[in-house]
Structure formats: C-alpha cells, structure tokens
Amino acid sequence: MTVVADGVFGMVKQIVKDVFFLGQRSEEATRDDMQVIDDLKDTLKANRDHCVGMAANMIGYKKRIIIVSMGNMDVVLVNPVILQKSVPYDTEEGCLSLDGVRKTKRYKKIRVKYLDDGFRQHTQEYAGYIAQIIQHECDHLEGIVI
Asked: Where residue 10 falls among pLDDT bands split at 50, 70, 90?
C-alpha cells in the first residue's frame, strides 16, 4: 500500500512487461471490478510523468478497462468499443510495458461507446492526441501490443 497525494490509501501496481500476458484478449468488466479501476487510477498517478494512459492488463488484470489522462482529469472507460474511425495516419508510439517505439496506424477522429467508473453509458467523439491514446489502450484490450 502507498499513500497517494490526497491522503487516501491506494494500490500502485507494478507494470506488466510479459508480452505473452499482454497478448491475451481482456474479458468484459463488471461492477465487481471496482478495485481494478481504483488500482488503475493510483498507478497512472504514480507514473504520470511518463504515462498518459493505461489498460488494466498493464497492471495484471485481463479486464476491459482503460484510463486516459485528458489534461487536468483522468477518464476511466469501462468496456470501450470504438464505433467509428476516420482520417487515418501513420505514427510511432511508445508503451510503458515495452522498450522503444513502434510504427502504427491511427485515426484522427474516433467515436467510442463505454461505461464510466459509475457504470453509466456514454457515446463520445474524440480527436487528436486523446483519440490516439484511446486507440492504443483499446489495442491492449484486444491483446495487440504496440
């Protein structure tokens, strides 16, 4: 256990680097996975200086949950599904679970359906860098290692 900035006890997890584990598809998340959400929040806070997003499998849980830093707030997306993609481009990305950077194709605009950390459903459009982070983390959920 570690104490996070607001004085609440939380669990900062080790980052998984096992490519075999990361290469497995994640399972649907349920309300029983609230601890996974809390651990993702704490672990992203602890790695904020070099990380902008995280998927649950990066901290050892094969659950369909991601967290994305969106400026001054972190947003949890539970069971995210990318409904639409437009304006493809090529880029390079790094990953906290891997060394170096890799080439990949991303889309400048996406539309995503997801549940928030209160399990309320949303459909939202994202563009630019935030869209890129969401695509990277959703790849993790599918077992695609970038």
From this structure: low
Domain ranges of the chain: 2-141
State which fold the 2-141 domain adopts: Peptide Deformylase (3.90.45)
Q: What is the residue type of 66?
A: I
The per-residue b/e assignment along 41-68, b for 16 or more CB within 10 angstroms, e otherwise, is: bbbbbbeeeebbbbbbbbbbbbbbbbbb
- Say if residues 140 and 93 touch (Cβ distance below 8 Å): no
Residues identified as active-site: 137
- Is the pTM higher than 0.85? The answer reads yes
